[in-house]
Specification:
Elements lengths: L2 E7 L3 H10 L8 E8 L2 E8 L2 H7 L9 E8 L14 E2 L3 E9 L2 H10 L11 H11 L5 H11 L2 E9 L6 E6 L4 E5 L2 E5 L11 E4 L5 E4 L10 E3 L4 H5 L6 H7 L1 H9 L3 E2 L2 E2 L12 E6 L1 H18 L2 E6 H4 L10 E7 L5 H12 L3 E6 L5 H5 L2 E4 L12 H20 L5 H17 L4 H10 L8 E6 L3 H16 L3 E5 L15 E6 L6 H13 L3 E6 L8 E4 L6 H22 L18
Parallel strand pairs: 16-17, 16-18, 18-19, 19-20, 21-22, 21-23, 23-24, 24-25
Antiparallel strand pairs: 1-4, 1-10, 2-3, 2-4, 5-6, 6-7, 7-8, 8-12, 9-10, 9-11, 11-13, 14-15
The protein binds 5-amino-5-deoxy-1-O-phosphono-D-mannitol.
Length: 593
Amino acid sequence: MCGIVGYIGANEKAKLMLEMLKELEYRGYDSAGIAILKNDTLSIFRATGKLTNLANTLKDFRSSGFGLAIGHTRWATHGKPTETNAHPHTATFSSVIHNGIIENYQDIKQELEQKGIAFRSQTDTEVIVHLFEEILKTTNDILSAFEQTIARLKGAYAILLITKQSPDRIYYAKQGSPLIIGKGKAGIYFASSDAPLIGLAHHVSYLEDGQSGYINCHNFETLPNICPLHTNKLYAQKDGFRYFMEKEIYEQHKVLLETMMGRIDGDTILFDELKDFVLPQSILLCACGTSYHAALVASYLLERIAKIKCNVAIASEWRYREPIMDTNELFIAISQSGETADTLEALKIAKRHGMRSLAVCNVDNSSIVREATWTILTRAGIEKGVASTKAFATQVMVLWMFALYCAQHQRKLLPQDIRQQCTAMLRSVEATKVAPKMHDKIRRLSKHYLHGHGFFFVGRDIFYPLALEGALKLKEISYLHAEGYPSGDMKHGPIALADDGLFTIALMPQHMLFDKTKSNIEELAARDATICAISPIEVEVADDWIMLGNHASYMEEFFETMVILQLLALEISIRLGNDVDMPRNLAKSVTVE
Ligand code: M6R
């Protein structure tokens, strides 16, 4: 995820910017840059890759004495991770950095290009600085030009802009992306999260959406809600959560909005990245672990919504099974990291046999992205917890949108149906917000689920892959034995394990085969298994009940259930005293087979 820093003051700025950006490294990035304005000179430095590359471009540069500095780490969303696409973006006398996505940048870009403005990058961000200088031609009031610029932008942003026209201040705007302004002994500081500010600023203001203006050395006190800054860096990186996994569960509603941003326009799904896309006759979805579970969910959605026949394969199996490949079939590789050896190799095999491919991936420029014909980035931001949470959520969202995209292009759905699904998507995002009461209930309940000989997670339809995912989450971080099953499959074998030492987590949405699942649960309860029902409807035989919200569709129920399962795994694991973020025997990126 992108990171922002800034400074107004007399300290050496290049070194300071690098140090502040370093505190944001944990969020992941693929390029970085800084702009320094001092004595009417605007100096720009940018580099791809790690901050050491940026440091190399700065090694002979010093900038003490009063001035301004802005710095950025970029996680590519629009345009490849190249130096030209790295921030800051500069027009004639101004420079800008930005986190978020400007949804209407194409319209603004077109309008500015018609006026003869040449763009250098493929980013959405560059429009901001050109638009600002264009508006400035019509007014002497720089703040007004900045505010008129901001008023034109749709989407999410945290923006810092500096201009030679007013070299003592930094212009800022916030909408949907975090931005903090701090004051310290040596000046004014800006950052997109606490970590870079610790040790520099003693007081901060966490900006609210809709705030914009400028800050110089004298007007910090005019900001609202100024408070002292705490001093623990690791705590700051985790935004105050106990574990990165917990933080990542809590931020799902934010990243899901990023996943959707710019891809829905009323009743139309847009994937600019699918240039010359050919609708396939059938699809093979291939992945490992959690990504495989997202593939299974997608296969239900693609068949139901887009009426495209799907097969799903675990990459480590598919690559050695001498599969029959069909060049009319689309190969979809799903991977958070983009580096999973088995998925990458499977993709290479499909490519060698002439199959077209789509990568659904969280990391631009990763090996899987480079190999695939098309890519849709999931935009989850860096995921630090080894147990995948937000990456799974964004994979499912992208694949749901992709199913709608295919249905729309085949005219399998009416515009009003697509609009209805888009509404369900927004509601599903809402459903991933963690309610403190719910978390507390799961925390209390978790103490009853620490012993026993194992767990069954059961569900039907897309709640079956979600049951698999719930079981995987639990076993990864708690080291307890857990399996996911289709609830209708109990009597074909698994029910033999049912006794008073078996815990069953029953996924029982009201909008997906509730009565069928209920009968299966009753059979387990009759054999004394402990039942924890996740449902909006109270189930008589259940020992515990985690109450789902009263949603309008099974997709909303799916996303809320997903969060509940993640929290349950987290709380059980914490009670068992395990390291949630770094479970034993596991690695975040599995680059060997
Ligand atoms: O990076 P990928 O999505 O390709 O990784 C696949 C699996 O290794 C991964 O999902 C793994 O199962 C996670 N630890 C699950 O939490």
